[in-house]
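hey team, just a heads up i'm posting the complex here instead of the shared drive bc the drive is being weird again. everything in one block, sequence lines first with there labels, then the predicted structure for the whole assembly after. its two chains so it's a bit long, scroll down
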Amino acid sequence: AQSVTQLDSQVPVFEEAPVELRCNYSSSVSVYLFWYVQYPNQGLQLLLKYLSGSTLVKGINGFEAEFNKSQTSFHLRKPSVHISDTAEYFCAVSEAGGSYIPTFGRGTSLIVHP
Amino acid sequence: KAGVTQTPRYLIKTRGQQVTLSCSPISGHRSVSWYQQTPGQGLQFLFEYFSETQRNKGNFPGRFSGRQFSNSRSEMNVSTLELGDSALYLCASSPPDGADTQYFGPGTRLTVL
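-- predicted structure starts here --
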């Protein structure tokens, strides 16, 4: 079984500042890793995913994440945030080559202030 | 291509009633998964259907059930509603060539009074 820990429940930041949302996972097997974003009253939208290969993954809306196997982390970063990035962000893990059913973290609320 | 659609978007029921939620996946997607999202428990996996068969199941009581039709549309049913069933129910579909990626619908907000 896998588990995901999102270390910060809320991250406030000013517009145009950089941001990092932290995610650590636990698994005894190889994993796939995902970041999703959820805007108010909407479903989840995939930002990026790591399946294999390069550990630096680029996604939509200027986000990127780096897979660090030794630290079992998959932190999400953006060099300059906008007001429109205010949303809930979910990190998820699934078993590589397995059922593909992801286990989600509890979410990090990113609040961008003007 | 149209996204995942869920109906209804909002629903209010009373304790003891039953409810049916509907999900239409993206055209060509055969896998449909259901999740319950609450502030207290976060996102929890309910079940997954593939080609009309339940392929995976989460840890929910038997009051929660689902089915999938030949056109891949799926329904989820909750019987004997409890206050704790109030949640956002999300449906997600996956393409045959990218089963690792799920595409989510907007959800159905269920309120149990």
